[in-house]
Amino acid sequence: MRDSESLAKGDEARGSQQSSGPQGLADVRRLNLQRVLAEIRDRRAVTRKDLVAATALNRVTVLDLVAELHGRHLISEHPSVSTGRSGRPAMTLELDDDHLAVAALEINVDRIRILCSTLQLRVVHEEAIDMVGEGLSPDHVLELAAMCVNRAHRALLRKGLLLKRVCIGLPAFIDHRNGTVLTSLSFGWNGVPAVDILQRSVDADLEFTLDRLANLAIREERARAGLMPDSGIVLLYGDMGVGGAFQKGGVILRGDSGSGAEFGHISVDPGGPHCYCGNRGCLEMYVGIRPLAAALGIVDDQEGGVMQRVLDLLESGDRAVAAAAREQAPWLMMALRTLQTVFDPRALILGGHLGSLARLMGSALEEGVSEVENGRATELRISITGANAVLAGGVRAARDDLLAAPWSA
Q1: What is the C-alpha to C-alpha distance for residues 304 and 240, in angstroms, rounded to an integer?
Q2: Is the pLDDT of residue 10 over 70?
Q3: What is the DSSP secondary structure assignment for residue 99, as one 8-state letter?
Q4: Which of 73, 95, 117 is the last residue of a domain?
Q5: Do residues 242 and 236 lie in contact, with contact meaning Cβ atoms separated by under 8 Å?
Q6: What is the pLDDT of residues 315-337, one digit of tens each?
Q7: 108 and 144 part of one domain
Q8: What's the rounded Cα separation, in Å, for the pair 408 and 402?
């Protein structure tokens, strides 16, 4: 019995070792395709010779992988700039800009927006649908979203581009793995399989992913922040509530149940009122659009109507709005200090509508962010990407997801 148990444990250990690495030649090839394509994405004017040096793969293998990526319309090649030397110039490789497209779809209480780009992130189509005053039932909203995607797909075909992936952003607690909205206060949704519904509703064979708004916005924030690649950044993102995201290098924290980095539910007042999440005194009960609307006496039957009226006042420079915004500053400072202590990020970024609020808070906010104990300063920034962060980050996410599985393109 002991011998048979030992053999079983040995088989289990070998199986575990095998499952953690490539299972065969097909997996090795896929990993090599990923490596080569990542080098082409991240470097400018890279040649086949450069790829051999960067990947340590032999020349024949690199040539074969490049040929497959070219055949799948993932890359293109062009003559390099002449150096004046005799002989044929080397061919440089770059992501394709003429055949494949990806899209980001932002679904919010006031509107639906779609942005489509090539693999080089060149914008090729965009559209917005106003939803203020419309119903927010899942069937209605996702039907409008599907119509938006179908129109984009047809418009891209007329330009000779094939839409491959769509990344959806929603203000909600989300199960990213199966594309389900777990709960959304803004929409009043619970357990909505958004990805499944959209895949059944669109005319094209597309891959969809679903994520929170902040998890998409942080990708664009990182791209524009000018930070070291492995720097940690924390984003507090304002829509109707307060979302958040944390990214270290290229990894975004999601959490096991989909609620990771929901910084709007940090308790800043343990004795405060109950929040819908079950906690007490959550940040988004004191900071953001809803508490600002309550302070200003703004009431509307539709969440989108409340948002639009508050945003109009934020842009107007109204004194009452500025005073109400400054009243929110201590609560926001408390949350920022907590995030600074927990994550020790290189940068804390205020995005979405929090950027507009932060500008009104001024020095009252800046004075509340101190250096961490080891003397390293965490830089507080207001987003420079503004309202476009979700869509811009969404097309990056869709593009990178496509490039992560080049064999399926």
Answers
A1: 9
A2: no
A3: S
A4: 95
A5: yes
A6: 777 788 888 888 999 999 999 98
A7: yes
A8: 8
